[in-house]
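Thread: Newbie trying to understand structure tokens

Hi all, I'm a second-year student working on a class project, and my supervisor (Dr. K.) asked me to get a predicted structure for one chain before our next meeting. I've only ever worked with sequences, so writing a 3D structure as a token string is new to me. If someone could post the tokens and maybe explain what I'm looking at, I'd be very grateful. Here's the chain:
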Amino acid sequence: MKRLLALALLLGSAAPAIALDQANVTRIDTATVRIDWKDAGAVDIYAATDPDATIRTARLIVRNDRDGMETVPADKATRTYFLLKDRKTGQTTRVAERILPLDKGSNFRDLGGYPAAGGKHVKWGHIFRSGAMPLLDEADYAQLQGLKIGSVIDLRSIEEREVAPTLLDDRTGALFIANDYSAKAMFAAMQTRPDGGITLPDNLYGGLGIMLKPQFRAIFARLLADEGAVVYNCSAGQDRTGIASALILTALGVPRDIIMTDYHLSTPTRRPEYEMPPVNPADYPNNPVLQYYAAAMKKPGGVKAEPLYAKDGEAYLTKFFRGIEAQYGSVEAYMDKELGVTPVKVAALRARYLE
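---
Reply by user tm_fold:
Sure, no problem. This is what the structure looks like when written as tokens:
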């Protein structure tokens, strides 16, 4: 029951508060969402397309609601942020859909709303994580255009980008950043089973903290540059992207249990069918990523989103954290030494991305 409550909160949550609490947004259909919250008194609801909108600049859509639930119009083509105001205390809570309702996207979601350092919360609409985006359609690009994306950081290898290129930067005018490395090293640690599947090592993320230093540095550099929303992705949007998200949330002071729950959201929100375009594997015989997807597609049900746990039942991210802490003393010390995310920069990140 605790896990279900945590998932409901994280799928579309805003800050817990003294009176107004546990707000979340659930999409009903292409034109409607439901907002749920807990409050002892009456609440007014405002809507805006600007993630930093205030009560003065937002549009009042519901007045004096007392039942803790309201279904409101919200076209999926335009991202909407809601402000819930307690009529008695004046307290305001911001909330939005955590998962963007893309037609052909996988794992594209907002890191906003999580409780963080100093009793504050991560701002909505500024930091987005995703899986690969090679099959986005025109409606998806139109929706993403409205996010005012300034940077797209692609965490994928040369082989992945070769067969499933990202066009989001071209379609939005965002800065595109990718650092070349081969996926062959990662796949060398994996074992191919007789059924064509792959057995993953227990320490799946071992070494990624150093291997992906250029990519992680780039993400923090773009966040500190404050030049529009930041989007970062890998193929599934769960492993390399999961580590990057964990580092960002750690820097912002988000509790470890919340970070882990966000990490595990990648299983239900992943859509593997949109991560790889139809490509003939024979045209890329030396591409291990494409060979993996081709083998997986031959199995019943194709590529599946598997829970992110090792054979011993422990989450891969937990093992990553333990390894980092054993070597550096803390995740913060690793970020300082290896990524250049000093305490001064952490303070700057919190000043910009917490409210």
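A couple of things are worth pointing out once you decode it. The two ends are 29 Å apart (CA to CA). The chain has two domains: 13-95, 109-353. Feel free to ask follow-ups in this thread.
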